[in-house]
Automatic annotation (TrEMBL):
InterPro entries: Plexin_repeat, PSI, Semap_dom, Semap_dom_sf, Semaphorin, WD40/YVTN_repeat-like_dom_sf. One of its GO terms (cellular component) is plasma membrane. SMART domains: PSI, Sema. Residues 1-19 form the signal peptide. Residues 672-683 have a biased composition (Polar residues). It comes from Caenorhabditis auriculariae. This is Semaphorin-1A. Residues 25-490 form the Sema domain. Belongs to the semaphorin family.
């Protein structure tokens, strides 16, 4: 078995190099470690991380939360404009240490910052595991900053600097929307809205109900933004509706939203959202059995895409393991809105039942989750429905297949920033996607007619330094790690010195200037004659003509090229091997599934008898929970044993290999990709492309294979 695994990994690696969107080879490598404008990392003590977090970009300045400080940096040079120091008092630190936290964690890590309409800055931090907020007034005469108010930051800032939380301040209503946790242990996760006004304590504050795994369960928030009349929250969480083969809950990617004008329901639901809905995000490689990237890691802002729609680009990964894979998918905001507005709701009648959609006539009116002028007047039926069933039945599918997939042999993708609508020489517009990795690099990616091209891979920090935030302006890219910030130009056109190599970058920022014979950035395009070919990456207009398989100068590319040519040589042989392997595996798997299925049957019988009395509690769950929260009793977290899913529902590599075997015999599998925004349809891929892509989709999944065979 160990040999089989090695062989599988070997094959996966090699097929991976030849892929359409898997493990694409960057056109250009840039080593920028130690270059560009830098901030931080001067006296880094490895035990005391700064936990930098990019909190806002405010005109020409960047606001960065750090340990016991907020930095206001100049966007142009990363020099410090201002700095606010805020250390927790010694007794707070002692108390925090007594509760078992490390001295390094018992500091004030600033996690939230917003500029209020009165010009004051709202700043919130972990404050030695006891979150606090302050308001600061800026005196433009002497440049000093004065603390004018301090209040409890519970539900606004997390307790732990590592917690993945999100906050969005809305100046018009002086309210803050957050996705975070409200307790020391980090168990009570919530989506919350709090009024920041003085003397407004408690008024208009609304939250998700606690201790209900159908609402939120151990979420990691990645972003929030306002879009039309809603606030959207993006996160990953343990899905109440899904268990894997070992009856463990699976993490799913989610998008959720609340209405800005939601005032909560009538008592006792007066502090509950009446509009909180959520849906699963589906970023997957399709074959007979889809291969899912379930763990949402980062999302972009909504990017304008045609009439009345916006695209959100998102980074996903498979569960963490040494064979983790990442992918980038794009989603239509219109599609998300439509699902929330017209889709059906998913529910489970009893703890033992399957999750099913509600029938049209079972959904109360007005429709649960709709924005209404006065939510406190909503009928009880609507409110209790939405509190119990916030999940939409259908998952939101991405726009076409993943834009890019990074295999297990590549660093994980961690962050994303999109520079929208960059003009090419021929006035076509392209969204440029920048991706941060777990090994301190940034990839610059552009989608051309449905295919991704990795224009450039830039090493920004030492290997092993994950990128935690990315921000792009039309000229600069700001890259944030826990202890260092860098600012680099968005392009490196000048690195290429011939026309064909310049054109080959397929970078909308770069074109060959046939007068000065240089690869130049768009800033210097004026008059003259510029050569660029975004679609084919080669041009007859180049003096050297069309150069196929251009060899780049970089060593890193060289080594990859050697491997690529080997793949070419052995491809047929390897395909044969893969098919043979699949046949062997399907034999083994058949036996295995039989075994699992019988185990599953036994297990579900056991659960059924154990939990047979919990059915009625569960049906009146929404109400029972409400009363409990209002009296502020902390109930222990109820963790339903969700069973009753077919073992097949969560796909693993073994079944994928099986389905690959089937697909090989279905050459007419349609796979047409429509590019968002432009309405261009690229032709279906041919049979060989499908075969290759299925192999690629299948084989790298051996982190599951590993689980199965070892
Ligand atoms: C997109 O990729 C496919 C598969 O590699 C290729 O056949 C097709 O020509 C590409 N399209 C463009 C416009 O490059
Ligand atoms: C950051 O500093 C700049 C330059 O002094 C100032 O204009 C800006 O208002 C500051 N931002 C905040 C949020 O304090
Ligand atoms: C926050 O997210 C990062 C990256 O996705 C992850 O490595 C980390 O464990 C998360 N933090 C917590 C407390 O779960
Ligand atoms: C996710 O998308 C894939 C590909 O479009 C599809 O085959 C699959 O059924 C979808 N899954 C869910 C849960 O909707």
């Amino acid at each position: 078995m160990a040999n089989l695994l090695t062989l599988l990994t070997f094959l996966a690696t090699f097929f991976g190099l030849n892929g359409a969107s898997l493990n694409l080879r960057p056109r250009q490598f840039v080593n920028a470690v130690g270059f560009g404008d830098r901030f931080g990392s001067i006296n880094t003590n490895s035990e005391e991380s700064d936990h930098f977090k990019l909190l806002a970009a405010d005109g020409d300045s960047l606001l960065v939360g750090a340990r016991n400080a907020v930095y206001n940096l100049s966007l142009a040079s990363l020099s410090v404009n201002h700095r606010i120091d805020w250390k927790p008092p010694a007794e707070h630190i002692e108390e925090c240490i007594m509760k078992g936290k490390s001295k390094a964690d018992c500091q004030n890590y600033i996690r939230v910052l917003a500029r209020k309409s009165d010009g004051h800055a709202l700043v919130c931090g972990t404050h030695a595991f006891s979150p606090k907020c302050r308001e600061y007034a800026y005196n433009s005469q002497d440049g000093s900053v004065k603390n004018t108010r301090q209040f409890d930051g519970q539900g606004i800032s997390p307790y732990d600097p590592r917690d993945n939380s999100t906050a969005l301040y809305i100046p018009e209503s002086n309210e803050i929307y957050t996705g975070t946790v409200t307790d020391f242990a980090g168990n009570d996760a919530l989506i919350y809205r709090k009024s920041i006004g003085e003397g407004q304590a408690g008024r208009g504050n609304v939250r998700t109900q606690r201790d209900d795994v159908r609402v939120l369960d151990a979420p990691n928030f990645v972003a929030s933004f306002t879009y039309k009349e809603h606030i959207y929250f993006w996160f990953r969480e343990q899905a109440a509706e899904a268990v894997d083969n070992n009856e463990e809950r699976v993490v799913y990617a989610r998008v959720s939203r609340v209405c800005k004008n939601d005032r909560g329901g009538a008592r006792p639901a007066n502090e509950r959202w009446t509009s909180f809905l959520k849906a699963r995000l589906n970023c997957s490689l399709s074959s007979a059995a889809p291969f899912y990237f379930n763990e949402l890691k980062a999302v972009s802002e909504p990017i304008a895409a045609g009439a009345n729609d916006h695209t959100v680009y998102a980074v996903f990964s498979t569960p963490s393991s040494e064979l983790q894979m990442s992918a980038v998918c794009a989603f239509s905001m219109k599609r998300i809105r439509d699902e929330f507005e017209y889709g059906s709701f998913k529910y489970q009648r009893t703890v033992q039942s399957l999750w099913l959609p509600y029938g049209r006539n079972e959904i109360p009116k007005p429709r649960p989750g709709t924005c209404v002028p006065d939510s406190t007047k909503l009928p009880e039926a609507t409110i209790s429905f939405v509190l119990r069933n916030p999940l939409m039945h259908k998952a939101i599918e991405s726009i076409g297949p993943p834009l890019l997939v990074e295999g297990a042999d590549r660093a994980d993708l961690t962050q994303i920033a999109v520079l929208p609508r960059v003009d090419s020489v021929s006035d076509q517009r392209y969204d440029i996607v920048f991706l941060g990795t777990s090994d301190g690099r940034v990839l610059k990616v552009v989608e051309i007619a449905g295919n991704a091209t990795v224009i450039q891979a830039t090493s920004v920090f030492n290997k092993g330094t994950p990128i935690v935030n990315l921000l792009t302006t039309p000229t600069h890219l700001v890259i944030v790690s826990a202890d260092e910030i860098a600012s680099l130009a968005v392009q490196n056109c000048a690195q290429q010195s011939t026309c064909s190599r310049c054109v080959q970058l397929q970078d909308p920022h770069c074109a060959w200037d046939s007068n000065s014979h240089r690869c130049v950035h768009r800033d210097s395009w004026s008059g003259g004659h510029y050569i660029q070919n975004m679609v084919f990456g080669q041009s007859e207009q180049c003096p050297e003509g069309i150069v196929v398989n251009e060899v780049f100068g970089d060593d890193e590319v060289q080594s990859e090229r050697i491997m690529t040519s080997r793949v070419g040589q052995y491809t047929a042989q390897m395909l044969l091997l893969a098919v043979l392997l699949a046949a062997v595996i399907s034999g083994v798997v058949g036996v295995f599934i039989g075994f699992r299925f019988s185990r599953w049957l036994t297990a579900s019988e056991a659960h059924r008898s154990a939990s047979s009395t919990s059915g009625s509690d569960y049906d009146s769950f929404g109400r029972a929970r409400l009363t409990r929260h209002d009296s502020l009793t902390t109930a222990s977290k109820i963790d339903h044993a969700y069973i009753g899913q077919q073992p097949k529902a969560s796909m693993d590599a073994t079944s994928l290999v099986l389905s690959m075997n089937q697909s090989v015999h279905q050459p007419h599998h349609p796979m047409s990709i429509s590019q968002h925004g432009s309405g261009i349809n690229t032709p279906s891929r041919d049979k060989n492309a499908i075969l290759t892509s299925i192999n690629q989709n299948t084989l790298p999944r051996d982190y599951k294979v590993k689980k199965v065979y070892l």
